């Protein structure tokens, strides 16, 4: 058991670092790893562990990004608040999904996001929107550079409800979906999209984790696994914020797409053929 927990700590470091760089919290990697490593674990147990780890990782990464002035707090709080209905629905639904169907659906989700990430643009290239129902933002990074972008409020709210559902249902935190949407649909600069996404993910995953605790999804073994992974993720997330300073936006999306593609194919093979 000690060796298993040590391995989970190391895995948590890698997940925390990688997830912070791409603004996704790392759940999109952790869930398929858990599905492969623990094939008898129920979907609600997998998602509860992942969400607990994502919460710790996202909080740690958000602190690092806050020091670097990468977070758009107004947008992050809007998205986090709008995600609540989806988060609650996903946490309650997941316990009724068969394990093999869950694996296949998750594989399809990862594949779709991988394709979207490869095809997407990485910068806000349009003139910021104006008019009623538009949220216009001016943000300044740690070096004093200004960025102006705007998005329709209804689009941001709709995205957040969907991301909240996906986040809670699959235990991935939601950043793996929201970062591509924020860059391609809402035209946010990648460096702010990843940091703001992680900030919103900390609320989403925290709310979903609270629901799983209230419904007593966690057993003693799941709590031990979650704690070991969370310790590693806490350290890895801080490393991730430093790595992110040296990685260009397009590279972030390529990193996201490559990991998603490999994991999605592995999960689809498992769902279809059982191995």
Notes on the protein architecture:
A hairpin with a 5-residue loop joins strand 1 and strand 2 (146-152). With 275 residues, the chain is mainly α. It has helices at residues 2-21, 27-37, 43-67, 73-82, 84-93, 99-119, 153-170, 175-184, 190-214, 220-244, 249-273; strands spanning 134-140, 146-152. Helices cover 73% and strands 5% of the residues. Helix 3 packs across helix 9 (190-214), helix 4 crosses helix 7 (153-170) and helix 5 (84-93) runs parallel beside helix 7. Strands 1-2 form a two-stranded antiparallel ribbon. It is globular, with a radius of gyration of 17 Å. It has eleven helices and two strands; from the N terminus they run ααααααββααααα.
Task: Give the secondary structure arrangement, pairings included.
Layout: H1 2-21, H2 27-37, H3 43-67, H4 73-82, H5 84-93, H6 99-119, E1 134-140, E2 146-152, H7 153-170, H8 175-184, H9 190-214, H10 220-244, H11 249-273
Antiparallel strand pairs: 1-2
Helix pairs in contact: 1-2, 1-3, 1-10, 2-3, 2-11, 3-7, 3-9, 3-10, 4-7, 4-9, 5-7, 5-9, 6-11, 7-8, 8-9
Q: How much is the average pLDDT?
A: 82
Q: Helix coverage percent of residues?
A: over 70%
Overall geometry comes to globular
Radius of gyration: 17 Å
- The DSSP helix count reads 11
Biggest sheet architecture:
2 strands, antiparallel
Q: What percentage of the residues does DSSP assign to strands (E)?
A: 5-15%
State the end-to-end CA separation: 25 Å
Low-confidence stretches: none
By DSSP, the count of extended strands is: 2
Numbering strands along the chain, what is their spatial order in the largest sheet?
1-2
Structural class: mainly alpha
Instruction: Give the topology string: H per helix, E per strand.
Output: HHHHHHEEHHHHH
